[in-house]
């Protein structure tokens, strides 16, 4: 519960990411996985929303925008046949669940708002951590889609920048099933582009995606239960999962909620007025 060591903080500041193995216990991992399975089982889609990082502005619909305040379900791009039917079972076709699990589902809320999570953020000098987004990511076998190089602060903007990503492996993440790849030190270059929500509720990027040499990235192959911390300006991606093994993960993004840091009004993610962001309870000094 003591948070990060000085060495771990220095490595995070140097590289823009940090791996903490065995952060989540096997029992916590199983509870999250079982709860995600229950959510998918109870999900009966009235409309279909597909998640894509290849054509994000085109695929962003009202269902996606409203997911900021909901527990919503998004299908893989390759989940459907030409006639619109699912190629395989619903449970093997969902890309992710998002984006308010950490507030609306008791199991995910308990895990996301634990004392040990708050202690890590306190170690990174986040004075009033506000979780703003959470996702359960399935990375389905054979069809788990590519996630192109990006920075989390492209999609969640504060002034000054303050985003921290927390990504938990709920299964072993390997190069075969689509582990994260991170670019060491890239955060020092700042945020390359921004994802803007306009007054008419359409979204757009303000710049084109920069070109990155994938040979400069390092694979983050981590065992189940590991926590990967990501600086908001770190550049990371994952390849498609063409293996027969899924790569379940849970992620949450946190911003600084203390006075002096502002969550910008042109962020795509805007909560309903009856569901404001709520800070984590910070550990009390002994």
TrEMBL record:
InterPro entries registered for this protein in UniProt: Phytyl_CoA_dOase-like
- Respond yes or no to whether keyword Repressor is given for this record: no
Q: Mind listing the UniProt keywords for this protein, alphabetically?
A: Iron, Metal-binding
Q: Which cofactor does it need?
A: Fe cation
Q: The organism sits in which domain of life?
A: Eukaryota
Q: Respond yes or no to whether keyword Iron-sulfur is given for this record.
A: no
Protein name, as recorded:
G9740 protein
| The organism of origin for this protein | Coccomyxa viridis
């Amino acid at each position: 519960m003591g948070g990060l060591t000085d060495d771990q903080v220095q490595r995070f500041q140097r590289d823009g990411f940090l791996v903490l193995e065995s952060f989540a216990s096997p029992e916590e991992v199983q509870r999250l996985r079982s709860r995600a399975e229950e959510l998918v089982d109870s999900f009966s889609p009235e409309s279909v929303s597909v998640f894509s990082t290849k054509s994000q502005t085109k695929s962003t619909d009202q269902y996606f925008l409203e997911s900021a305040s909901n527990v919503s379900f998004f299908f893989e791009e390759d989940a459907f046949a030409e006639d619109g039917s699912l190629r395989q079972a619903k449970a093997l076709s969902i890309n992710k669940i998002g984006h308010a699990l950490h507030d609306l589902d008791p199991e995910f809320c308990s895990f996301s708002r634990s004392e040990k999570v708050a202690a890590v953020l306190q170690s990174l000098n986040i004075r009033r951590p506000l979780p703003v987004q959470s996702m359960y990511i399935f990375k389905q076998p054979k069809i788990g889609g590519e996630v192109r190089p990006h920075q989390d602060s492209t999609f969640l903007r504060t002034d000054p920048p303050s985003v921290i990503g927390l990504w938990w492996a709920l299964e072993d993440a390997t190069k075969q099933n689509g582990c994260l790849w991170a670019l060491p030190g890239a955060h020092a270059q700042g945020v390359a582009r921004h994802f803007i929500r306009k007054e008419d509720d359409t979204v757009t990027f303000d710049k084109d995606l920069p070109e990155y040499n994938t040979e400069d990235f390092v694979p983050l192959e981590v065992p189940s239960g590991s926590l990967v911390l990501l600086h908001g300006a770190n550049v990371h991606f994952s390849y498609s999962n063409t293996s027969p093994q899924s790569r379940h993960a849970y992620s949450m993004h946190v911003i600084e909620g203390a006075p002096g840091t502002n969550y910008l009004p042109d962020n795509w993610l805007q909560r309903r007025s009856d569901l404001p962001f709520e800070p984590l309870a910070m550990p009390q000094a002994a």
